[in-house]
Amino acid sequence: MGVKIKESAISDTEFERMQQFVYDYLAASVEGDEDGGRMRWYPWHSAEYRFNHIQNVIEIATTIADREGAAIDVVRVSALFHDISKLEANQEVHAEEGARVTREYLQTCDNLPQSFIDEVCQSVAEHSYQGPLSDTSLETQSLIEADILDKIGANGTVLILLRMGYESRTHTDAAEMVDRVLERGRNAKERVVSDTAESIAYQRLKRVKWFREWLESEVPAMSTDANIEFTPDPTKADAHTTHGDIDSNISVATGTDTDSTDTNTDTDTNPDTNNTNPVDTHISDR
Ligand SMILES: [Fe+2]
Predict the structure, then answer these.
(1) Are residues 86 and 196 in the same domain?
(2) What spacing in Å lies between the alpha carbon of 228 and ligand 1's midpoint?
């Protein structure tokens, strides 16, 4: 997305120092895990994965903050620290624990106003909040929206397919797994409140829908119903290869109207079948 930050009180050097601290902290949290630990072989229990997620969240959150008028430095620093305790603390308390570690670190930095530290720590502590986003500050909202958005779209699809490998699933389960990403995308679109986040959610949801269509058009034996175990049936295979069946198959699998979240379905077409992609245009020029 490449956001140009309008003005920043945090220098590039300071931010890089913070990034190094966060990465080192994550790496130290999983240092002894190769000897045991339930999650040790999942890639997302690694410092590399978590740090990559954090970088994505910084990018998305900064975009949202910039366009919605939130305090950019509060948002990007809280995005950087939001999951710092994710690998060492229980999921239920990782936000509060993260805020504690963040405060300890920020208090060692020169020239950071106490009000800035308080705001950053509040956003980190509240980033797991499950209630309406309108209950939170614009800065916390930007962070939560970015955290949600990183789990949908092309990246969300890659992660769930990667998980299939770790669960020894076959590729014919891919449609069901991609449907889960679609479902997650629809939920995300419902939950986010800012125009910028809604626009990003819309764009990402559309990408997953396209991927789902491409997948099914290339793999006739793909299971199309998440709830029914698939038995290959050569008489059905032809029907699945026709493009027109794809949306109705998705509807069956998820129990939802595929296009219920679209507002401008007529103009957003799969670039594979028609080279227009107004969603990408829409987001890139904002
Ligand atoms: Fe996160």
Answers:
(1) no
(2) 33
